[in-house]
Amino acid sequence: MLVPNIEFRITPQTKDGKAINIHLLVCPDDPNHEDLKLQALGRLSWEYGSRNYSCLPPQLMDLGRAYDPNATSEKAALRVGVKQFKIDFSHFKAWYESELWLKRNSIVVVAAGEDGLSGLSKDSGWAATRDEISRFADAIFSGRPGERDFWLGTKSDENRREVEKLRGPKPCLHGCDAHSLNTLFQPAEDRSCWIKADPTFEGLRQILFEPEDRVHIGPTRPDYHDRARVLAAVTVRDSNEWFEDGALLLNSGLVSVIGPKGSGKSALADLISYAAGSFPTDDDATFLNRARDHLAGTRVKLEWADGRSVDASLDEEQPETSDVRYLSQSFVERLCSQDYKGD
């Protein structure tokens, strides 16, 4: 998945004389997104020498030549123009708020380091501006654990109140920021960024609503489950065409199987419970007991996330395991009915 990233350098400058880095991650779903971005950038302007220059390549080249007459080639002029085009934050914010398509289809990310929020001291005359930039941003570019804890508001009650004042909590994102080929895909200090979402822009947007649960920074992907208790795959074979032969892969966060009546939900639950040694063979209301004559020879294999597996046949005794607790559909219906008088 490729997400267009427009990086701006804006004022005020940091304590080290650097500009603040603000990024717009833009949704690429619209087939005309490139033209729409250029139209928006054409309406962002900066004044130099009594002339306004827009944020488009030809105008940036003109700015480069106006500032440095020695920048004669297009490449040199563009490089100078891009470097000099630094607009004020309030101007940038007003432009962004007025660009309705861009605002609906982008995520604002501000750097947290010395070329970002950390470059504006909380105790300086720029503290209020720092707060405004923080409120404006949807997410933060940082891989530091302490920075992430701060923006999630998990350090203390005071921290939580401060982050909420800044329109948080906010997710922290981190990339390799490669400036050479040998550092490509090699984030500093092995701080890889793991995002739990569909690989779409809408999936990426979900991190804004669940920043703590959907983003993890570290060398390996997070594992929140006891792998011995996670069912990774169910394979059914030789079922007389009641089921397709092959493995059904289950993700580790699965909590339910959804489908219309008759789509096989109960059948799947019955097969899993039988192979796991917990199926109630005396419950005549279950799918498996009613359909057993049609399923002669069917084999079921369960694979667990820790590497264990069990292979069972419906013609044989159930395996002697206790990895699953089975609640039949009829039992749940009785338990949940309004007139149920049991204990």
SSE topology sketch:
Layout: E1 5-11, E2 20-26, H1 33-42, E3 45-48, E4 51-54, H2 57-67, H3 74-84, E5 87-88, H4 89-98, H5 100-104, E6 106-111, H6 127-136, E7 139-141, H7 145-152, H8 157-165, E8 172-173, E9 193-195, H9 201-205, H10 211-214, E10 215-217, E11 231-237, E12 246-249, H11 265-275, H12 287-291, E13 299-304, E14 309-313, H13 329-336
Parallel strand pairs: 1-5, 6-7, 7-8
Antiparallel strand pairs: 1-2, 2-6, 3-4, 9-10, 11-12, 11-13, 13-14
Helix pairs in contact: 2-3
Sum this structure up briefly.
It contains 13 helices and 14 strands. The chain is an alpha+beta fold and 343 residues long.
List its traits:
343 residues, 31% helix, alpha+beta, four-stranded antiparallel β-sheet, 13 helices, single chain
Please describe what this structure looks like.
The protein is elongated and about 90 Å long. The chain has a 6-stranded mixed sheet with strand order 5-1-2-6-7-8. It has a 4-stranded antiparallel sheet with strand order 12-11-13-14, covered by helices on one side. The protein has a two-stranded antiparallel ribbon with strand order 3-4. The chain contains 13 helices and 14 strands. With 343 residues, it is α+β, with helices and mostly antiparallel strands. The chain starts with a strand and ends in a 7-residue tail after the last helix. It folds into 2 domains: 5-217, no CATH class; 227-336, no CATH class. 31% of the residues lie in helices and 18% in strands. α2 (57-67) crosses α3. A hairpin with an 8-residue loop joins β1 and β2 (20-26).
